[in-house]
């Protein structure tokens, strides 16, 4: 049986790599390559940085591409083996379809592990490196930490919610800043400034206006200023580093972030759905392997073109249903876990039943 396992793994490995290149080409042919071409030709980004940006953008694609490529690889290999009567020969030798599935399952475990490594280690690293490239300039068309919210709770009894329109990382400036300042649950002041920076334990706001709000929620006083200071324990370096999108965080980082937001009384349902996404997507590889084997046996003479078409159709159906269930979870109809894992659970049940039926024939 080890000969069979090695044979299957080699066959799937080649088709899997073909699928990786195919789906990366398909998914990057749109927005990513268009942006890179514009930055190179119109905004003067050097060619070596264009290549670096492309490579650093790949991990986010690979998280989704690897399970998809596995499905294509399984469909192509099983379809070819069934078409060449190799599966009939194996079953005549007493090999059940469940035993035949074992090397595909082992390969899918490797793909699952690789996806997790990319998601947990490579993706956060590449996201940080991308930010460093954009901080060096000269381009401005790729949002990194702009138009984002963050909180400063370093002053006791005061919470400040910042909205930032733009970031000048080189000079340590936040541009187009709006700050809502809370004391407990009460909004006490709104600050609108052209620029803000951190210096010697203070936020320094420049050229703006602030609105003092009374206990009834009404604007009580309007003050224009050229410079306004408030205390903080934040540093600009920490603020810029902290502007990592939840999608770019590892599972552990996102879980810590969710707990911190919960402690502040924030609604974290959407973040919890995203957290379970980070487990459901890698394990989709196991589901695709099972479904791929069952369907590959069912359509024994599917060629490469039909295998590609079938894999795209299955992936499309998977992610449409996955999106619907996730939306229901975000709306509170389903729990975050069930909403993200329902597609994997149903896919596993469906693939198992189909493989069991084929095994009885």
How would you describe this structure to a colleague?
With 361 residues, the protein is α+β, with helices and mostly antiparallel strands. The chain has 2 domains: 2-138 and 269-360, no CATH class; 148-242, no CATH class. Helices cover 62% and strands 18% of the residues. The protein has 10 helices and 6 strands, in the order αααααββββββααααα. It has a 6-stranded antiparallel sheet, with no helix packed on it. A hairpin with a 2-residue loop joins strand 3 (173-183) and strand 4 (186-199). Helix 1 packs parallel to helix 5 and helix 5 (97-136) packs across helix 8.
Task: Sum this structure up briefly.
With 361 residues, the protein is of the alpha+beta class.
From the structure above, extract its key features:
2 domains; 6 strands; 62% helix; 361 residues; six-stranded antiparallel beta sheet; alpha+beta; single chain
The gyration radius over C-alpha positions equals 26 Å
How would you write the strand order of the largest sheet? 1-2-3-4-5-6
Fraction in helix? 55-70%
**How many beta-strand elements?**
6
Give the SSE order as H and E letters. HHHHHEEEEEEHHHHH
Question: What topology emerges from the helices and strands here?
Answer:
Layout: H1 2-28, H2 31-41, H3 47-83, H4 86-92, H5 97-136, E1 148-152, E2 158-168, E3 173-183, E4 186-199, E5 202-213, E6 219-231, H6 236-242, H7 251-263, H8 269-298, H9 304-330, H10 336-360
Antiparallel strand pairs: 1-2, 2-3, 3-4, 4-5, 5-6
Helix pairs in contact: 1-3, 1-5, 2-3, 3-5, 3-8, 3-9, 5-8, 7-8, 8-9, 8-10, 9-10
């Amino acid at each position: 049986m080890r000969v069979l396992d090695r044979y299957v793994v080699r066959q799937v490995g080649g088709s899997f790599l073909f699928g990786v290149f195919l789906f990366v080409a398909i998914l990057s042919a749109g927005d990513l390559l268009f942006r890179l071409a514009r930055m190179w030709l119109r905004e003067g980004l050097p060619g070596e940085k264009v290549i670096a940006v492309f490579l650093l953008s790949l991990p986010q694609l690979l998280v989704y591409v690897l399970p998809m490529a596995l499905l294509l690889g399984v469909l192509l290999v099983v379809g070819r083996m069934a078409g060449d009567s190799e599966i009939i020969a194996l079953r005549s030798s007493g090999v059940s379809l469940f035993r035949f599935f074992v090397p595909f399952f082992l390969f899918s475990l490797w793909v699952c592990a690789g996806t997790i490594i990319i998601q947990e280690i490579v993706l956060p690293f590449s996201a940080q490196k991308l930010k460093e490239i954009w901080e060096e300039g000269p381009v401005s068309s790729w949002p990194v930490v702009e138009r984002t919210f963050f909180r400063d709770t370093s002053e006791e009894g005061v919470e400040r919610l910042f909205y930032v329109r733009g970031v000048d990382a080189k000079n340590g400036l936040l541009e187009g800043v709006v700050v809502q300042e809370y004391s407990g649950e009460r909004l006490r002041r709104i600050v609108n400034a052209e620029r803000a920076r951190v210096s010697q334990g203070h936020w320094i706001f420049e050229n703006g206006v602030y609105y003092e709000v009374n206990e009834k929620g009404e604007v009580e006083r309007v003050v224009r200023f050229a410079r306004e200071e408030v205390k903080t324990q934040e540093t600009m370096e920490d603020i810029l580093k902290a502007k990592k999108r939840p999608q770019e965080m590892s599972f552990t980082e996102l879980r810590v972030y969710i707990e911190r937001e919960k402690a502040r009384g924030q609604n974290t349902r959407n973040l919890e759905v995203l957290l379970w996404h980070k487990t459901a997507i890698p394990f989709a590889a196991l589901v695709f392997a099972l479904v791929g084997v069952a369907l590959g046996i069912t359509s024994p003479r599917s060629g490469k073109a039909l295998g590609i078409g079938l894999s795209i159709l299955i992936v499309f159906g998977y992610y449409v249903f996955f999106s619907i269930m996730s939306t229901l979870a975000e709306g509170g109809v389903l729990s975050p876990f069930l909403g993200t894992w329902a597609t994997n659970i149903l896919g596993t049940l469906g693939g198992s039943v189909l493989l069991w039926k084929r095994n009885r024939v």
